[in-house]
Amino acid sequence: MPATDSWEDIFHTALRRDTLLMFDPAAGQNTSFQQIRGHRAIGVVYNPEHERYGNYVPTSLARRYDAFIYLDETSRAPPLTF
């Protein structure tokens, strides 16, 4: 479950579907996405005890990314076997 008031929480509540967002700073739009909210960091080791404070970083989506893909539900990749 995403942390409350995180970007992931907002998208899950409002959209409930996979979404592609494109940001164009030159167009003067995207003001809603310039707000700073928690965003789940990529590559962190998941620990449910630290989910809210260890896995989220303050992020302005429109300033950090040119595009952002939100996937409402994902699953782990199967282990590699050799």
Oligomer: single chain
The N- and C-terminal alpha carbons lie at a distance of 33 Å
Low-confidence stretches: none
What is the averaged pLDDT score? 84
Shape: globular
Give the class from helix and strand content and strand pairing.
Answer: alpha+beta
What's the structural domain tally? 1
Portion of residues in beta strands equals: 15-25%
Task: Record the strand order, biggest sheet.
Answer: 1-4
Number of helices: 3
- What share of the residues lie within helices? 10-25%
Order of helices and strands: HEEHEHE
Provide a descriptive summary of the structure in words.
The protein has 82 residues and is an alpha+beta fold. It has one domain (7-70). It is 20% helix and 20% strand. It is built from three helices and four strands; from the N terminus they run αββαβαβ. The strands form two sheets. Strands 1-4 form a two-stranded antiparallel sheet. It has a two-stranded antiparallel sheet with strand order 2-3. The longest helix is centred in the N-terminal third of the chain and has 8 residues, at 7-14. The model has no long low-confidence stretch (mean pLDDT 84).
Topology diagram in text:
Layout: H1 7-14, E1 19-22, E2 37-40, H2 51-54, E3 56-59, H3 61-64, E4 67-70
Antiparallel strand pairs: 1-4, 2-3
Give a short synopsis of this structure.
With 82 residues, the protein is α+β, with helices and mostly antiparallel strands. Helix content is 20%, strand content 20%.
